[in-house]
Amino acid sequence: MEKTQTVQGAGQAAAVAVEAALAAPRTRPSNYPEQFALRMAGREKRPLGDLFGLTNFGVNLTRLSPGASSALRHRHSRQDEFIYVLEGEPTLITDEGEAKLRPGMCAGFAAGGTAHYLRNDTGCDVLYIEVGDRTPGDEVTYPDDDLRAEMASDGKYRFVRKNGSPW
User: Fold this and answer.
1) Which of 57, 74, 81, 98 is 20 to 30 A off residue 151, Cα-Cα?
2) What DSSP line would sit under 132-159, residue for residue?
3) Which pTM was predicted?
């Protein structure tokens, strides 16, 4: 059985179906400034939405090794996020506290809502799907860190300190 199926169109091939676990992982584990990126050790993201040319939202298959975190605790100003747990039991940390998740559970984070992240406190890997929209002009706040992210016109985030000075 093929791992990827493609169709030809407009001079290039586009994936129509892939085996998610075989999609190439991101080459950079994080786009955070270096001192924060180091805290993402043990996180592996496989960007699935990009394989299909999706532009309105992103989809990642994310694996957290034991002790790893999904992100710094954060909230988006304009973008919504959603996660669905496939394997393992991550701890969801939000403004309201901590909750243990298990396979089949999901969580959603509306723009401007609770700050959040996942942490793997177990001895087994955690695997989940994350979906986020790509609304322009998004800003991300990180309540526990001297960090803020602003989306530039090219759709990429630029990181600054809370006082606005660059990293």
Assistant:
1) 98
2) EE--TT-EEE-TTSS-EEEE-TTS-EEE
3) 0.89
